[in-house]
Write a structure and sequence with these properties.
The chain has two domains: 167 residues, Medium-chain alcohol dehydrogenases, catalytic domain (Quinone Oxidoreductase, Chain A, domain 1, Alpha-Beta Complex), CATH 3.90.180; 138 residues, NAD(P)-binding Rossmann-like Domain (Rossmann fold, 3-Layer(aba) Sandwich), CATH 3.40.50.720. 31% of the residues lie in helices and 26% in strands. Strands 3, 4, 5, 6, 7, 14 and 15 form a seven-stranded mixed beta sheet that branches. α8 links the parallel β11 and β12. α4 packs across α5 and α7 packs parallel to α8. The protein starts with a strand and ends with a strand. The mean pLDDT is 94.
Length: 333
């Protein structure tokens, strides 16, 4: 089989190679992978793992077909269309250290290979109406947005959701918010992307380059109330604005660090707003299955920017690094 490995730090360290075809053991399934999707985490792994885990197969998310099963497998069967779970050991309940240490694409070899052997507990069937490309976007980006807004935030109709940017998690957040009957404010530095976001259902848009104090604009839009939910992907560079923009008792779902890891925040603002700040690291298989049921009822289609063949994996990662995408980037196998 063909696979991509991180042979040295950085995008240039990615290489397509051949490896022996794996075989499933007891309780395991063999999956022929058709598509993987890129997450910002995958880019960070490629930039760092070459020094710490040379030979690692990157990419946490994908979709494929079960082509063989080992003894005792009952959850899926040969021919089933499935996605591997981001955390192989987080099946239900709250996260544990063991569960959070079982992520694909680091420390466990990821999805950017033609064949994978996984525990039957670590895969879930995907909806019939979705393509493999669409399903490959769900395990990380889709589930992160779902857990933040729905599982943790308990989003209800009529609430205001502020979505930062137009990457994969942000577009899922926009879609889930609209499915829930929420009002959505979308921020971006690109007017073109903001217009695309309006076409997907965003009610209000803010260009944060021309309006750097976008928290004030959020309060203007909401009549001084602020946003009930903020999908925080910027990290250090945007968290203070998120705290200023959140409604009393609102939720800030911290799911990204695009703008850095560390910065000062105004603690007094947290007291004033009584805001709840949640760190969101994807979710469990149970949450994934909840998300799949909701998406299937509405036939929600994930937003895909463009696709690349495996041989052009470096170009796909370079696009992620430039931030030139709207929604998800896919690699075909």
């Amino acid at each position: 089989m063909r696979q991509v490995t991180i042979n040295e730090r950085g995008i240039e360290g990615l290489a397509v190679s051949e490896a022996a075809d794996p075989e499933p053991g007891a309780g395991e399934v063999l999956i022929r992978m058709h598509s993987t999707s890129l997450n910002y985490r995958d880019l960070m792994t490629v930039k760092m793992a070459g020094a710490h885990q040379p030979g690692l197969v990157p990419n946490s998310c994908g979709a494929g077909t079960v082509i063989a099963t080992g003894p005792g497998v009952t959850r899926v069967a040969t021919g089933d269309r499935v996605s591997p779970m981001f955390f192989q050991k987080w099946l239900a309940g709250p996260p544990t250290r063991d569960a959070l240490g079982s992520a694909l694409g680091g420390p466990i070899d990821g999805c950017l290979r033609e064949l994978m052997v996984l525990s039957e507990e670590g895969v879930t069937k995907i909806p019939d109406y979705m393509s493999f490309d669409e399903a490959a976007t769900l395990p990380c980006a889709g589930l992160t947005a779902w857990r933040g807004l729905i599982e943790e935030g308990r989003l209800t109709a009529g609430e205001v959701v502020l979505v930062q940017g137009t990457g994969g998690v942000s577009m899922f957040a926009l879609q889930f918010a609209k499915l829930s009957g929420a009002e959505v404010i979308l921020t971006s530095s690109s007017d073109e992307k903001l217009e695309h976001g309006r076409q997907l259902g965003a009610d209000h848009t803010i260009n944060y380059r021309s309006t750097p104090d976008w928290a004030a604009e959020v309060h203007r839009i909401t009549g001084g109330r602020g946003a009930d939910h903020i999908v925080e992907v910027g990290g250090a560079n945007t968290l203070q604005q998120s705290i200023a923009a959140v409604a009393l008792g609102g939720h800030i779902h911290v799911i990204g660090v695009l703008g850095g890891f560390v910065n000062d925040i105004n603690v007094a603002e947290l007291f004033r707003t009584n805001a709840k700040i949640h760190g969101i690291t994807v979710g469990s298989r149970h949450m994934f299955e909840n998300m799949i049921r909701a998406m299937t009822v509405a036939e929600t289609h994930p937003v895909i920017d463009r696709t690349f063949p495996m041989a052009q994996c470096r170009e796909a990662f370079a696009l992620m690094e430039r931030g030139g995408h709207f929604g998800k980037i896919i690699i075909h196998h």
